[in-house]
Q: What sequence folds into this?
C-alpha cells in the first residue's frame, strides 16, 4: 500500500516535470522566434541573391506555420540537435559543453564558501537572537544580497588586484600558463591536478577565489536567513532544554543536537541556492572575463544568435528544475519521517 | 443596502491594512528597518526635487572638463564627457523609481488575477495556471529578463516589460494560497447565495482580502527589481545612453575605472543603498507580520 502510494506520487512528479519541460520549450521557442535577428541572413551573408535566401529560408522551415515549426524544433531537441551557433559555426551544444565547466567550477567553489559563511552566521544569529551579533549578521548578510555583484566585482578587482596585488585579475589563470595543461575535463583545477602542474593549479585558484568569494557572499544571505529560522525552531524545543539541564555546554547543545536536526533542511536550501548562483555568475563572468556560460550567453545575446540563446535559456531552466527535484529527493532520502 | 453595510464592516477588519500605523511604528523602532525607511524616504525626496538638488544639467557635456575628480564645482566629479556625476545620480533616482513603480503596477494586477482565478475556480483551471506559473518560476529572473530583452530589443521600457514578465509568478502563488483560505468563508457563500457573479465575488470579496499580503510581497520584491534593472543596464540591455541609469553609468565608467574610480563607485553605492534599504524594510516587514514577534515587542 505504502509502496504503491510512493510510486504513484513519483509518477505524478514525473508527469509534472514533463509538462514543465514542454512549457519551457514553448517559452524558449517563442523567445527565439521573437528575436529580431534574421537567422537566414546570418547564414547566407549580406550579398546573397534572393534565390539563395529563399532556399535557406525554406531549408530552415521558416515557411511553415509556427505550430509545425515548433514540432520540428521539439523533434530536433529530443534528438539532441540544438542547432548551430551563427557566431562560432559549431553545434551549440558543443559550445556550451566547453564553456559550462568553467562556470560550474566557479559556482561550486562559490557555494562552498557561501554555505560555510551562511550556516555559521545563521547559527550565531539564532543563538544570539535580538542581540548585537544578530543585528550585525542581518546587515552583513543582507548587504551581500543587496550589492550589485557586477559593481562589487569591479571594486574588488580595483582593491585586491590593481592596488594590493593579492589575487589574479580577469580570466581563469595567468596568461603564460594558458595551454600548458591538456584539457581533459575542462575543469581547470582538476586538469591541473591531473597533470601535476601545481603552479597552474595555484594560478587558477588565485584567479577563481575573488569571483567565487563574491558569489558565495551574495548567496549566503538566503542560507543565513534559512539557517537562522530553522535553528530558532529547534532552540525553542524541549530537548534543547533537557540537554542543557543535563549539563552540556551551549556549544555542544547547538552543534551536536540542534544542528544535526537541521542538516536535512540545510541540504535542500543549499541546492536551491546553487541554482540562484547561476544568475550572479552571468554578471560576474562579464566583469572577470571568465570564459564560462554567462559570458557565452551575454555575448550571443548582443549579436542575436538565436539558437545559442534559446539553448542557454533552456539549459538554465532544466538546471533549475533538476535542482528543485534534487532538493526534493534529498529531503526524502535523508528525512526518515518522509519514508 | 444590507450588503453594503456588511461589506463595509468586512473591509474595516482587513488584516494588515488596519494596523498599518502599527507596522510603521514597529519598523521605525528597529534600527535596521528604520534606516531602510529613511533611505527610501531620501530616494523619493531626491526624485521629487531632482531639478533643484542637481547642481548641473545631467546631460550637459563639458569636453574641457572630462574625468575631473570629486571636489571643486563637482561634488562627485565628472564623467568621460564632462557631465556632473552628482546631478546624473540625482536624476537617476527618477529612473529607478519609475522602474519600481511601473513593474509593481503591472505585476500586482497580473499576479492577483492569475492567483485569485486559479484559487477560486480550482480544478483544471487551477492546474493549468499553476503549471504556467511554475514554468516562469523555473528561471532565475535575470536570465529570463535577458532573454525577453534580447527578443524585444534593448531599451528601458522593454527592460521594464521583461522584469514585469518575470516577477509576477510569486505574486500569483501567494494570491492563490490566500484565495484558497478565503473561498470557503461564510461571507463568500453569502455573496454567492445573493446571486453575485463569479467575477463580482472575486473582485469585491476575494481581491481586497489578498491585497495586504500581496502588497507586502511586492515591497519585498523591489530590491530584486532594482538589482535586475541595474544588471540589465550594465549589460547594455536596459536604459540606453545618455539616460543616467545607474547600471548603465557603471557600464560606461568601467573603461575609465583604473584612473577614475569615481565614475563607477558612486552609482554603485547608490544602487547598493537603495536595494539594501528595500531589503531591510522587507526584513522588518516579515518580522512585523509574524504575530509572535509583534506582540512580544
A:
Amino acid at each position: 500500500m505504502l509502496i504503491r502510494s510512493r510510486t504513484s506520487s513519483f509518477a505524478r512528479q514525473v508527469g509534472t516535470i514533463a509538462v514543465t519541460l514542454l512549457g519551457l520549450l514553448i517559452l524558449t521557442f517563442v523567445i527565439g522566434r521573437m528575436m529580431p535577428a534574421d537567422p537566414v541572413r546570418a547564414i547566407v551573408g549580406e550579398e546573397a541573391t534572393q534565390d539563395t535566401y529563399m532556399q535557406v529560408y525554406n531549408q530552415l522551415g521558416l515557411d511553415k506555420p509556427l505550430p509545425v515549426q515548433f514540432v520540428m524544433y521539439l523533434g530536433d531537441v529530443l534528438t539532441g540537435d540544438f542547432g548551430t551557433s551563427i557566431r562560432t559555426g559549431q553545434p551549440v551544444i558543443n559550445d556550451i559543453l566547453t564553456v559550462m565547466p568553467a562556470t560550474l567550477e566557479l559556482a561550486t567553489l562559490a557555494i562552498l564558501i557561501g554555505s560555510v559563511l551562511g550556516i555559521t552566521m545563521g547559527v550565531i544569529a539564532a543563538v544570539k537572537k535580538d542581540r548585537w551579533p544578530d543585528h550585525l549578521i542581518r546587515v552583513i548578510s543582507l548587504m551581500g544580497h543587496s550589492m550589485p555583484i557586477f559593481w562589487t566585482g569591479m571594486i574588488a578587482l580595483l582593491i585586491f588586484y590593481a592596488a594590493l596585488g593579492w589575487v589574479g585579475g580577469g580570466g581563469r589563470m595567468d596568461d603564460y600558463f594558458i595551454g600548458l595543461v591538456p584539457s581533459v575535463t575542462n575543469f581547470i583545477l582538476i586538469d591541473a591536478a591531473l597533470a601535476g602542474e601545481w603552479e597552474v593549479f595555484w594560478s587558477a585558484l588565485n584567479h577563481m577565489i575573488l569571483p567565487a568569494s563574491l558569489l558565495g557572499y551574495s548567496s549566503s544571505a538566503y542560507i543565513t536567513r534559512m539557517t537562522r529560522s530553522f535553528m530558532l525552531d529547534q532552540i525553542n524545543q524541549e530537548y534543547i532544554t533537557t540537554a542543557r539541564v543535563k549539563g552540556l555546554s551551549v556549544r555542544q547543545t547547538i552543534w551536536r543536537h540542534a544542528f544535526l536536526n537541521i542538516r536535512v533542511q540545510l541540504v535542500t536550501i543549499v541546492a536551491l541556492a546553487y541554482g540562484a548562483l547561476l544568475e550572479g555568475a552571468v554578471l560576474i563572468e562579464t566583469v572577470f572575463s571568465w570564459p564560462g556560460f554567462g559570458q557565452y550567453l551575454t555575448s550571443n545575446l548582443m549579436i542575436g544568435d538565436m539558437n545559442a540563446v534559446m539553448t542557454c535559456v533552456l539549459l538554465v531552466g532544466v538546471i533549475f528544475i533538476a535542482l528543485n527535484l534534487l532538493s526534493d529527493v534529498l529531503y526524502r532520502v535523508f528525512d526518515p519521517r518522509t519514508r | 443596502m444590507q450588503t453594503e453595510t456588511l461589506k463595509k464592516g468586512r473591509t474595516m477588519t482587513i488584516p494588515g491594512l488596519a494596523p498599518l500605523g502599527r507596522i510603521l511604528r514597529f519598523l521605525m523602532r528597529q534600527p535596521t528597518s528604520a534606516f531602510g525607511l529613511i533611505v527610501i524616504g531620501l530616494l523619493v525626496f531626491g526624485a521629487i526635487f531632482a531639478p533643484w538638488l542637481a547642481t548641473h544639467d545631467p546631460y550637459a557635456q563639458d569636453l574641457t572638463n572630462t574625468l575631473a575628480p570629486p571636489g571643486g564645482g563637482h561634488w562627485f566629479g565628472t564623467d568621460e564627457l564632462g557631465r556632473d556625476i552628482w546631478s546624473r545620480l540625482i536624476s537617476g533616482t527618477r529612473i529607478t523609481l519609475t522602474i519600481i513603480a511601473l513593474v509593481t503596477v503591472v505585476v500586482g494586477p497580473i499576479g492577483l488575477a492569475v492567483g485569485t482565478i486559479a484559487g477560486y475556480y480550482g480544478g483544471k483551471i487551477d492546474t493549468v495556471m499553476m503549471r504556467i506559473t511554475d514554468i516562469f518560476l523555473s528561471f532565475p529572473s535575470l536570465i529570463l529578463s535577458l532573454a525577453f530583452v534580447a527578443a524585444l530589443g534593448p531599451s528601458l521600457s522593454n527592460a521594464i516589460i521583461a522584469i514585469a514578465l518575470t516577477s509576477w509568478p510569486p505574486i500569483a502563488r501567494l494570491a492563490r494560497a490566500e484565495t484558497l483560505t478565503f473561498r470557503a468563508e461564510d461571507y463568500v457563500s453569502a455573496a454567492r447565495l445573493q446571486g453575485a457573479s463569479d467575477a463580482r465575488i472575486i473582485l469585491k470579496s476575494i481581491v481586497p482580502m489578498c491585497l495586504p499580503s500581496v502588497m507586502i510581497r511586492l515591497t519585498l520584491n523591489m530590491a530584486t527589481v532594482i538589482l535586475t534593472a541595474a544588471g540589465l543596464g550594465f549589460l547594455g540591455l536596459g536604459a540606453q545612453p545618455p539616460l543616467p541609469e545607474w547600471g548603465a553609468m557603471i557600464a560606461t565608467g568601467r573603461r575609465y575605472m583604473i584612473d577614475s574610480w569615481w565614475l563607477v563607485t558612486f552609482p554603485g553605492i547608490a544602487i547598493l543603498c537603495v536595494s539594501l534599504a528595500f531589503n531591510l524594510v522587507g526584513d522588518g516587514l516579515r518580522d512585523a507580520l509574524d504575530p509572535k514577534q509583534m506582540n512580544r515587542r
About this structure: Chain A touches chain B through 47 residues (CB under 8 Å). Residues 112 and 216 of chain A are 7 Å apart (CA to CA).
